[in-house]
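Hi there. Long-time user, first ticket. I'm pasting a complex I've been working with (about 770 residues overall). I'd like to know whether the download I got is complete or cut off, because the file seemed smaller than I expected. Thanks.
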Amino acid sequence: MNNFTYQNPVKIIFGKDSIGQLDSLLPKDAVILITYGGGSIKKNGVYEQVITSLGKKRTVFEFGGIEPNPLYETCMKAVEICKKHKITFLLAVGGGSVLDGTKFIAAAAHYTDGDPWEILANKAVVNSAIPVGSVLTLPATGSEMNSLAVISRDNTKEKLHFCSPCIYPVFSILDPETTYSLPARQLKNGIVDTFVHVLEQYITMDLNTPLQDRQAEAILKTLIELTPRLLSSQKDYDSRASLMWCATQALNGHLSCGVVSDWATHMIGHELTAFTGIDHGQSLAIVIPGVWKYQFWDKSKKLAKYATNVWNIEGLMEIDLAKAAIDVTEEFFDDMGMFTRLGDYDIDVEIIDRIAERFKQRGAILGENNAITPEVVREILISRL
Amino acid sequence: MNNFTYQNPVKIIFGKDSIGQLDSLLPKDAVILITYGGGSIKKNGVYEQVITSLGKKRTVFEFGGIEPNPLYETCMKAVEICKKHKITFLLAVGGGSVLDGTKFIAAAAHYTDGDPWEILANKAVVNSAIPVGSVLTLPATGSEMNSLAVISRDNTKEKLHFCSPCIYPVFSILDPETTYSLPARQLKNGIVDTFVHVLEQYITMDLNTPLQDRQAEAILKTLIELTPRLLSSQKDYDSRASLMWCATQALNGHLSCGVVSDWATHMIGHELTAFTGIDHGQSLAIVIPGVWKYQFWDKSKKLAKYATNVWNIEGLMEIDLAKAAIDVTEEFFDDMGMFTRLGDYDIDVEIIDRIAERFKQRGAILGENNAITPEVVREILISRL
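Hi, the file is complete. Here it is re-exported in full:
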């Protein structure tokens, strides 16, 4: 087991009618900016619950229109509002994109060393941020309980992340009933995103970490078990609740304690989204089988363990178990109606070349063993056409 | 799944040579009281590592002699030292008893409403405490990452707990190598304590919480797998590391999210220790099979699940799986050389009657369904003679 440091201060308020606790979680004199996305919260009753809980005596501003893959350009408009109205608390109401956008707004509003894009492009240190709280409506990114945010830039087609202890949400309210109105596409994206978050921390070199491996398997097995019910029944409270808790636990830091993480799939997936606009979950379902095939010998031991412990495949040699693990994962995505090939989205070699070229310009080498060069990224993506 | 709130702010520093980070975790101007137990830290090198990390420029006092099942009487002596020297930081170096004692010292030193015993006896609210940090040397109680402490009183033979967000350690340093010198008895107690912490949050009514159940099973399976190696090999780093992380995860609050906990075994075990002085782990190994038999119909579904998922017992009816679960758990304790009967410690009916009488005086009803009356406690203990 590797050495590690773990700390996560986020307060989670989980369950039915939990939005009613919102007002008690906010400082009495807060000047609040509510941030949200395309407006679904105004149709499904979540916005009304938020406003009802806040009451009429608070100073509240609103900023809507944070898009999926939240744009730097959009966030900077909110930063202006924060400065103009001296906002002291940001309340993100929505999914991971709204949360990520809000985390960037929080950091950018306090950033005084130049263009806040530096936080993403050059990992400029974030020393301060407006406090953020969230009401989550889409289980997927884990952003509600971590210190990470991913932001896109429209004019350069970039998608970059940053990380800072300053952007842990102070609290996150998770009411599984808010997910009842999610379209199937977003639900599937959320399942795949959660599943791949776990895989990127689990299917890596074996460091003799039986507890962490089983904690990863716990989430994977639960997701596999729940998926048919999640996709067939919109108002099954317990399955929505379990999905929501799986998604939070998948990326709140505890799975990566003492193990090596990979994240090559996410890094390549971000570029696919940046260049083509396909959803984040869609990009991951395409990329991960390819990453595994190109790191097969480094990952075969864990792939075999995953085949046996998660998929109950037995009686094969390690190498065949590992191969079966890749196949069965791809089938899992197929079965839920997620495409797993670039061709399914009409993405061709031209895009692949642009992605490889970008990694080359950045000098980026990916993967747990720093073995995925831009040339290997190209090969991986070619294998997924 | 039940509604829940979860927050745990403790910073965990885990791994080889991690005590070297101690100085950087403490406020520069802290007036520190190092608390410890019977002095094993001065034999196994831990004390030296602590002093070396702190350097020569700090203001440091010491308080040794915190006993297993830390006594109120002992802790109050440390409270005097805290007041006399205006201690601003308590550094607990040792196992769960040293940590629990230190948490009580921290709260008692700031308690101004009378006798701090009220915190334990009448759950007087703790609004403030001296900050606590820890260097853990015994994986067992989970105290290093929770807000709980259990304190005994010599003159009345009581053992009571209290809970407050004020007593979360600011940080806990977990170096698995500090456990190499543990005597087998303490190691076994730690394994059993960890195992039973998980069971008291897992073997309860079924609320359709597949993720939490699997997270519990993850720790149980890992402990079962590790125990032979832990008991036969003193310096197997990875198994010590996994045990240490299991113990922390077993009682840091995340297993109880959304489920019902029981804690009858712990409550009865505390009284056994209070009256007879047997170790905490020893008391749990005796009591839990009895608690399960007397709550058999309430727990049979989860017991059967545990038999199958943790012990790989299959092909039986649910009721027989549940019975097998009780038997195999008792065998697990037996096999590691833990006694499971009161008679093994020459504890007789007189003690049982005193325990039942005490619960009666307190009006205490135990267990997940509030069904374990003082009379049932008596029956449970009689069944364990």
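A couple of notes from our side: Chain A touches chain B through 42 residues (CB under 8 Å). The mean pLDDT of chain A is 97.
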